[in-house]
Amino acid sequence: MRLHQLEAIVRRVSEVHPDYLYFKEQLVMVNAGISGEDEVQFFLQELVMPHRVIRNLSFLNTQQQRHEIDFVIIFASLILCFEVKNVAGTLHFDTDASQFLRTRADVTERFPNPVEQLNRHLRVISSFFPNIPIHGAVVIANRRAIIASKPLDFPIFHADYVLSFIEKNLVQYAEPLLDINEVYNDLMMLHSPKKESFTFTLKQLKRGIFCEKCMAKMHFVHGKFLCPSCRFQNKYAYFQALHDFRLLVDTKITNQQFCELCELTSRHVAKRLLQFFPVFYKGGYSYYEIPEQIFTIIHD
Question: Where does the NERD domain start and stop, copy by copy (predicted)?
Fold first, then answer.
């Protein structure tokens, strides 16, 4: 949800909005995080022994503090947790000062210490399964990153070492102690993704239908949306505008709001375009419900 909302914000919210640059930076960070996790997922696909993987486990502990764990891998003999960092540059881990430093182009930056982040997660997972070996590692997903210094007592490595790390742990902890599926279900019962939403008004959104190929404004011509720049045409290009509206403003829209959003001059054309969506009446107004899975709707 957060990724899709940020994408919609960058696409629809005006660049003069006071928080636009913040949202754009957040989108870059979220995409980098997903790319890093994809890199780890690539190697995990090679696991042949019985296991279950939970990606992005998110839950509240008994003190109502949130835990977000990038990967939890459940085996019959142990549980492993990975904290993934997708950062470039030369990396220094200083556990004594609780610092994670990245140097790039002669600029040094401090980031939250992933070792402490992961230790916090390991403590709470251990409290759920006190008799099960539970270990973790910080995984650097960026292939160009250089790990210059790290603690001797905590595993930090590149993503291509993930399988070797798992194999070493499975050799050390070989005795079956748990039911993989039972532990998976117990953890998934805890899973409650953080609900963070950004709300805007229609007036704060850019108007028009944007070409998915070149982002130029499209024109509605003979029942289709046509891009005057690259000549791409799409009968259902307005679905993206409705999707963005649903994420940023409301799950329902009026004919007038739709005309404003898509820069349509005819309410009759708007009504034809909205005919695929459920309509209901409230307070003397007609509203069209925008489905969450709008892109799965196909009409020929």
Answer: 32-148
